[in-house]
Amino acid sequence: MPPEAIRRIGALLRHNLTLVLQEPAPLIARIGSPMLLMVALEPLYRAALAHEGSAAGRSQAATGMLVMFSLLATSLVGSAVLTERVWRTWDRLRATPARPAELLAGKASAALAVLLAQQLAVITFAHLALGLEVERPALLAAALLVWAMALLGLGAAIATLVRSLGEFGAATDLLSLGLSMLGGALAPIALMPGWLQRVAPISPGYWAMSGLEAAERGDAEAAMRSMLVLLAVAVLAGGVACWRMSRGWERSRLL
Amino acid sequence: MLKVEELVKRYRGVTALAGVDLAVGPGEIAGLIGHNGAGKTTLVEIVAGLTRPDSGRVLVAGWDVRRRPAMARRELGLAPQEIALYPSATVRQNLRLFGDLHGVHGRALRSAVEETLADLQLEEVADRPVALLSGGQRRRAQTASALVHRPRLLLLDEPTAGADPATREALLAVVRDRAREGAAVLYTTHYLPELETLGATLAVMAAGRVVARGEAGPMLAALPSEVQARFAGRVPGPLAGSGSVEGDLLRIRTADPERAIASIVEGRWPLRSLEVMRPTLDDLYHSLAVEATDAA
Predict the structure, then answer these.
(1) Edge-to-edge strand list for the sheet holding B184-188
(2) Which residues 131-160 of B have a C-beta within 8 angstroms of A?
(3) Is the pLDDT of residue B295 over 80?
């Protein structure tokens, strides 16, 4: 990568982090909410999964809330992209020498930092407050990173494809709640109806749950399998976002 | 500095540009005028690389906008019609970002930002978020963000729309200065007197084409003037056929106002006033753009 491109990505990263820090409330809410729900729901999950042992309920509470609220955090990523469209600054950025991939990298690096900060805070809280055991922290860190990349791609793809703020809200609600439920983040997969269990693997949330739980218990093979699927989701969704962004938007109807 | 060749763009069956040719040289301010929907903004967006043309070619400082977009964009500064700045960031932060992305860094960037803030009288609000600025200050900040890296081609799309007189004056002064330093400027506006103040050449767009291009002077000289003679009483009969009559007022549209005046004065009729109305840019615009739109 040419040094000029790295400089431009650096400038965009600094700028985007500044924007995030100027309005930290959404990030604080996305970090605080899963912590509260985790504490409130952990006894219920422990009771529901009593036959699998107390660790299963604890893991379900921690990982489930982490996955659900990180899916909700795609709205942070998406709104970071969408507000640029509303402010018309995307076109200003596109009129600079920065290539679409550089623009996306600059935006994505800041958003990735936000997602990782959220996940690290939640998992650390789960360890301290619920006693969540992590057999292989490095494996879990890798799984969190890949999951954050998949979330990033999904959030960016939605924000570049929607035509209005209303559509964006609807899409992120559907995505986060639908994929959370289907992935087993809200209710354990084992307790869901059979047909839902069969279609669950179409949800990235399913692979996030299985990958993170595998990493927590130290099962490298299962964790790697999930990470590969999530990586494919990240590449595909990121590719769609990049493609859409490079085409720009005509003077828009609803934004 | 800017060369546009045979540019065509259609949006869902509507032809926005129907074969535009245009060249703007270094130090030249080209005033792009035309009705709403004439294709001005589409042309600006294609030159800036924001919209793909269906056919044709755009060269910025010799770089093809489609084949070498990064090189072409390095040379241009864009101030779009609508304010496009980060509202929660300060004016200084906005200028730093756009300067940085155009390859100006470190000390050079700091001094370019300060200089541009001073040029547009924005020093006092430099550390204020754009969202808290007045409309005029936002306009100036927007133009500043297009100027900060000293581009060789400036694309200013209605930069003074809604601006107060002081803001307009500051903006025009800076545009003139940058052109004097060698920048080519493509300036779209509906305020034609601005183009006279800027000493701009004209490119009149209508129905997706440039229907007239050149210096304003010769183009204006080709238009008829209007001689208005007001008499003490009715317009004398021998003169009535030479123009239109409204009570005691005779209007004669002519390419040779001196001869018309001579014919009025020689008759020694009782005159109350005699005036020659020279054609303005408004007249030129109407004669070219309106005719071309009607023809299309």
Answers:
(1) B76-79, B153-157, B184-188, B29-33, B201-206, B209-214
(2) 145
(3) no
